[in-house]
Amino acid sequence: MLVYYLQMLDTPEEKIRFEQIYLKYRGLMYHVADSILHDRQEAEDAVHNAFLRILKKFSKFQNTPAKDLAPQIVVIARNEAISLLRKRKDTDPLEDWGGFAETAEEVSDYHALVDTFTRLPQTYRAAMEMKLLLGYSDGEIAAKLGLSKKAVSVRISRGRQLLRDIVEREGFLMDA
User: Fold this and answer.
1) Angle between helices 104-118 and 149-170 (to 10 degrees)
2) Dihedral angle of Cα 155, 157, 163, 164, to the nearest 10 degrees
3) pLDDT of amino acid 110
4) Distance (Å, rounded) from C-alpha 69 to C-alpha 25?
5) Out of 28, 37, 62, 87, which residue is the most buried by the measure of CB atoms under 10 Å away?
6) Which of 31-40, 50-59, 105-114, 151-160 has the lowest mean pLDDT?
7) What pLDDT score does 91 carry?
8) What was the pLDDT predicted at 127?
9) What is the rounded CA–CA span in Å between residue 137 and residue 69?
10) Domain spanning 1-91: which CATH class is it, in words?
């Protein structure tokens, strides 16, 4: 696949930079997509779509500092996986959950929570996604984002509080 993507770029510098991004983040992107979709083929499709989105706006990623790149790429992969999940939902809404959701109301509540989560500022959302969705420790998140463990802990704490505030303000009830 890498060869296919590289053919879409013009300069040797772009090709080198894209190859670095591809080799470094494809596993993480797949993990994120698979944790949402729980289907190997669809996760691969989501990663492919994410790389196509990155290629479309590659000039934006060329000069992005390494510490800011991982969260952006994770969000792109996550969004592509959610998009595929929504397309799948159009055919059979309860099949997506593998028995997790028993009623349409639970599926609706889940989507409302996900939509609420996506409105958090990127600073907090990236750390929270890595912690809650990917199961990384604060130390692993700190290493990936180039932050201290304390900064990661603060971001997660503030992100949770912002999420609570949004939920309370909009009257979305959540059991926690």
Assistant:
1) 120
2) -160
3) 54
4) 10
5) 37
6) 105-114
7) 53
8) 85
9) 19
10) mainly alpha
Q: Which pair of tokens denotes residue 174?
A: 């959540």
Reduced to 3 states (helix: H, G, I; strand: E, B; else coil), residue 119 is: coil
Q: Above 90 in pLDDT, residue 47?
A: yes
What is residue 43's predicted lDDT score, i.e. its pLDDT? Answer: 92
Alpha-carbon gap, residue 44 to 143, rounded angstroms: 26
Could you tell me where the DSSP H helices lie in the chain?
2-6, 12-37, 40-56, 58-62, 66-89, 104-118, 122-128, 138-145, 149-170
Q: What is the pTM of this model?
A: 0.53
Which of 92, 83, 101 is CA-nearest to residue 37? Answer: 83
The domain 96-176 is placed in CATH, from the list 1.10.10.60, 1.10.10.10, 3.40.1280.10, 1.10.287.1700, at 1.10.10.10
DSSP character for 131? I
Q: Which long-range contacts (CB under 8 A, 24 or more apart) does 15-24 make?
A: 17/61, 17/62, 18/54, 18/55, 18/58, 21/54, 21/61, 21/69, 21/73, 22/51
Q: Which two tokens stand for residue 103?
A: 């009623």
Residues of the chain with CATH 1.10.10.10: 96-176
- Please tell me the distance from the alpha carbon of residue 36 to that of residue 151, in angstroms, as a whole number: 27
Tokens representing residue 138 in the block: 């604060």
Handedness of CA 57, 159, 134, 16 (dihedral sign): positive
